[in-house]
Amino acid sequence: MSSTMRAIAVKGGKGPATSLFVDQIAKPSAAAGQAIVKIHAFGLNRMDLLQREGRYPVPPQAPETIGVEFSGVVESLGAETTDDFKVGDEVFGLAYGGAYAEYIAVSTKMLIHKPKHLSWEEAAGAPETWITASQALFLIGDFQAGQSVLFHAGASSVSISGIQLAKAEGAKAIYATAGSQEKIDFLVKELGVTAAFNYKTQDWAAEIQKATGGAGVNLTVDFIGAPYFQGNLNVAAKDGRVVLLGLMGGVQLPEGVNIAPLLMKRIRVEGSTLRSRDEEYQRKLRDTLVSHALPKFCDGTFKIFVEKVFPFEQIVEAHQLLESNTTKGKIICTV
User: Fold this and answer.
1) Long-range contacts: 176-179, Cβ < 8 Å, 24+?
2) pLDDT, tens digit, for every residue of 147-196?
3) Could you tell me which residue ranges the Enoyl reductase (ER) domain spans (predicted)?
């Protein structure tokens, strides 16, 4: 058995999409509590772009290779591996890094048995997005049936997952923002949101206030950051929550931001990351996904939207497509 494997690397350690190439590196071995998974497919995420550019704080336990979500087959198990996995099991899961490769060493606490009817590509696109959406809604956002939710970047994979979760858990109303009419139509017609607003052509905060009769929304899930901070406060209902998951729009608040709604409406704003969390927290999130989403993957209620599949060797084109901000759903690479 070969002691090396193919993996995606970055020329010079960081750079543009064109700096990605297929390298030959040492194959990982399983530590205690880990499995070696032969990867069939992996999903792309925005953190991958930042890591490639040297702008993402990678956890110390992560390998140099990019990538956090994958699907594949368990090839071997390390010592003291007590979870319900065995050699030959078809799995998908989340890792601290290393998924852009032929093999990955990963804690069995972050593996999930792959339902037979899910393709390798669909399964590879589920872990990061559905776990992040579950975390935002249930662990941080304290979402309850009968409440309303607003998802910014509505056609992003996390929001697509979160919209489906919120619907299944009894949301009273679901709103979203997006940047094109195509995405607005997708959100309304395909995902069935209550209403979606084009942030380029509409004042989304004013529209949501109008749509809710001034009552606002109970929970907002935001990936944009500073430019949306005031709007998020304005549309929050009494005792509303804002979960901040990204800073795509920047980190410096505009001049004149009025924070009075924080006090007057008792708004809770909480930021969160996933990759820096310890294994026990991530295991809890995995179990949340298994309980809330896995049965609905199996019966077809939940859909994993895959925008495009690339072969492993076309990783440059895959990153360039993700950077274009035109996608609805996951970009997947097959190994």
Assistant:
1) 176/150, 176/151, 176/152, 177/150, 177/151, 177/152, 177/153, 177/204, 178/153, 178/154, 179/325
2) 999 999 999 999 999 999 999 999 999 999 999 999 999 999 999 999 99
3) 15-333
